[in-house]
Amino acid sequence: MWKRIFAVFRARNLEFVRDRGSMAWNIILPVTLMLGLSFAFGNDRTQFTVGVLSADDLPEVANHPFLDTRYVEFVPIKDQQEGERKISRHQLDLLIDFGSPQRYWVNPESPSGYFVEIALLKTETENSTPFQKSPIGGDAVRYVDWVLPGILGMNMMFSSIFGVGYVVVRYRKNGFLKRLRATPLRAIEFVVAQVASRLMLIMVFTSFVFLGTQYFLDIRVDGSYLTLLVILSVGAVTLVSLGLLVAARVTSEELAGGLLNMVTWPMMMLSGVWFSLESAGEWVQKFASLFPLTHILDAARAVMLDGASLIDIAPQLLTLLLMSAFFLTLGAITFRWHPR
Amino acid sequence: MQIALEARNLVKQYPEVRAVDDVSFSVMEGTCFGLLGPNGAGKTTTVEMLEGVTPTSSGEIWYYGAPAGSRFREEAGIQFQHTALQDYITVKESLEMFRSLYDRKANLDEIIETCSLGELLERDNRKLSGGQRQRLLLAIALVNQPRLIFLDEPTTGLDPQARRNFWDLVKSIRAAGTTVILTTHYMEEAEILCDDIAIMESGKIIIQGSPGDLLQQHYKNVIIEIPIGEISGSLASIPHKVLETEGIIEIETNDVSEILRELAKLTSGLNQLKIRQPNLEDLFLDLTGHSLRA
User: Fold this and answer.
1) pLDDT tens for residues A270-302?
2) Which residue of B has its CA nearest to A183?
3) Residues of A in Cβ contact (< 8 Å) with B97
């Protein structure tokens, strides 16, 4: 069995590596995106963001004159720990609690925090209750640091789903799968070989892009590289399996293209590739949790930006493993070797 | 000699058509069996059911006295009518990849020698000519040292020289003791290569036997051919079976002298006249009323 899997695995690798155009695209696209984004978002923000600890919506402006400050965007924060985490990452310039006692959190290393703090203290009067200050340290998370997992994930997604899906449909359409069917090779062996081949190629290219961008853009990685490798590998298996499932029975490249787009575009828009879903509606977040890419990006960002360990990302890993098992099993059961 | 493969009452029913209708035959070990018929007769569907790549609607396939299963898959070699190979992969890599899929392995050097692929080993699959490609597909069908090999229209699209070269290859494979099942619509190919044939029409076998026996049973006469443009009068006076196909008059007779005398009256010269033995094409025409390539 393993000899047969290895034979198909090796042949698929050779086919991919010798297709120079496709191979180059797997590197050029993410690198170009990263360079473009680092250029476009390289400068710091000019608007200030202040989190307001609140169970529901923002308090009325009349409650405190600071809420009327110009050039400051006030956002409600329900969870204090979450707010503190954002302060440490410089994602919020200041976190404020108008409760009793009145408190605020600020990052002493944040230039924006410094100015917003001055603006806050200016609103204090002799009669008002003074604020208690809580400093929180931490380096800034640049947009490029935040978006890199998204771009790597997006590239993995397209490479996995289109790379495997289109190839399988092409093999089926041109009769190569039918020829394999006439050998002792079983469907599960073929599927495993395709997953293994694409996984290896994706990990090689993703590592190459990751190391390249880290070298040039000094990307932040607080957690372990091994943990990051684990989540990206498991994520790639899930995405490849999804591609195989989509292509399990399709015989037309046009239909395959439509189905693959239908699967990938919602993930690209709703899985948090380009922007965080934290401010999105609850139903959007629930819907996005159906996508493997959402879990891959959540876990990868947790490892890179928060230094999360394997235990911390266990829920995402487990979800991805379950999704992989489901996609692979269904893909192998419904797999069709040749058009009817 | 034992039966290598047996088809028992094979049926393939599609929603709107019965492609194969109760087909039965046996193939003896070490022989070449030909499945003949025009395009759409059901040959390829029948063979694909035998190969195990198309499920049967009903019927059974037996291989060396047992239902065809994993042993059959391991021991059968298959060359499909249309097979694409992977892009960017060389001839040698294709052979090695397919060989790795079997426990039973042939000597690759011998196959390369037999199929004259020595100079093509490093060539990309996409850059092979039609004849070279067919030789590679045959070589792939041989990588497991098959006891039984299926060749589905192997010479379709080849030029006459490449076709004859391919026939020599098939003869050498058969001489090594491999059972061959061949589908073709070239009657000449079947006559040269096959020990037994079955002719299919509309999903059914209409006749079965050795080419020599079938022709001997159906014909005692010879056929005289002359272009229709050479004839200037009516052929009504000729007391034999006369057919016109593609601008040629064919007269089936057991008295050549008489026909030549009659034709001499109707034409200024007999330089274009040919006398030949009936062949399988004639037999098919007589049995069905239309040409194999119609």
Assistant:
1) 888 887 776 666 777 788 889 999 999 999 989
2) B73
3) 7-8, 10-11
Query: Sign of dihedral through CA atoms B1, B6, B8, B10?
Result: negative
3-state secondary structure of B81: coil
Q: What ipTM was estimated for this complex?
A: 0.76
Q: Is the dihedral of CA A178, A180, A182, A185 positive or negative?
A: negative
- Sorted by where each begins, the domain ranges of chain A are 2-40+142-334, 48-135
CB A273 within 8 A of CB A197: no
Query: B103-136, pLDDT tens digit by residue?
Result: 888 888 888 888 888 888 999 888 888 888 888 8
Q: pLDDT (tens digit, 9 = 90+) per residue, A196-226?
A: 888 888 888 888 888 888 888 778 888 899 9
Pairing of strands B196-201, B241-245: unpaired
Take residue B214 and report the two structure tokens written for it.
């079938």
Q: Does B72 touch chain A (CB under 8 A)?
A: no
A9: nearest CA partner in chain B: B97
Which B residues, 47 through 66, put their C-beta within 8 Å of a C-beta on chain A?
51-53
* Residue among A171, A174, A184 whose CB faces B74 most closely: A184
Q: Which long-range contacts (CB under 8 A, 24 or more apart) does B58-61 make?
A: B58/B9, B58/B10, B58/B11, B59/B7, B59/B8, B59/B9, B59/B10, B59/B11, B59/B22, B59/B23, B60/B7, B60/B8, B60/B9, B60/B10, B61/B5, B61/B6, B61/B7, B61/B8, B61/B10
Question: How many CB pairs below 8 Å do chains A and B form together?
Answer: 71
Q: Which two tokens stand for residue A327?
A: 């996609």
DSSP B196-249: EEEEEETTEEEEEE-HHHHHHHH-SSEEEEEEGGG--S-STT--SEEEEETTEE
Q: Which CATH number fits domain B3-216: 3.40.640.10, 3.40.50.300, 2.60.40.730, 1.10.1520.10?
A: 3.40.50.300
**Chain A residues with beta carbon closer than 8 angstroms to that of B74:** 184
Q: Are strands B32-36 and B179-184 parallel, antiparallel or unpaired?
A: parallel
Instruction: Note the pTM of the prediction, 2 decimals.
Output: 0.71
Say yes or no for a CB contact (<8 Å) between B96 and A7.
yes
Closest CA to A190 of A244, A129, A143: A244
Q: Which of A183, A194, A197, A253 to mutate to test the interface with B (most CBs of B within 10 A)?
A: A183
At A73, the pLDDT band (50, 70, 90 cuts) reads confident
Residue B181: pLDDT above 90? yes
pLDDT tens figures, A82-104: 888 888 878 788 999 988 888 99
Q: Give the full edge-to-edge strand order of the sheet including B58-63.
A: B18-28, B3-13, B58-63, B66-67
Residues of chain B with CATH 3.40.50.300: 3-216
Q: Which residue of A has its CA nearest to B137?
A: A179
Q: Which amino acid is at B217?
A: Q
- For helices A225-246 and A253-270, give the axis angle rounded to 10 degrees: 140
Q: Which CATH number fits domain A48-135: 2.60.40, 3.40.190, 3.30.460, 3.30.450?
A: 3.40.190
Nearest to B101 among A15, A176, A183 (CB): A183
Min Cα–Cα distance to chain A from B167, Å: 22
**Are residues B86 and A19, on separate chains, in Cβ contact within 8 Å?**
no
SS3 A237: helix
CA dist A133 and A112 (Å) reads: 16
